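Hi R.,

Here's the chain you asked about this morning:
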Amino acid sequence: MRALVLLVLMLLFATFAEAQNTVKLSWTLSTNDVSAACAAAGACQQTIYRGAGACSTTTTFSALATLSASQTTYSDTAVPNGTYCYAVTFTLLAEESAKDTATVSLQPPSAPTGLHRI
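And the predicted structure, written out as tokens:
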């Protein structure tokens, strides 16, 4: 019986360790971001980036998506457990802004405690 409980716990941990998560990002545009200059097709856009680790230590990012200038949400699906730095930039007439960042930590739930043999 003890071996069965241990096997079930190992399977639960393995399932959670491989879990894929969805990270939903949202932000507010400044009043200067969506201006008359954006009226020209393709003049403005936003780019979403993700890097491994906390934002305080991350220097390498991968671009995930390019969004319209007025979009204020993005969902990153199938994200494995771990810590990530997400960033968004705003591009106006081919000039990209500095990255606004946020750290997201995705961890598996703790193993159950207080199990008793029946």
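Strands lie at 20-26, 44-52, 62-67, 73-80, 82-92, 95-96, 100-106.

Let me know if you need anything else.
M.
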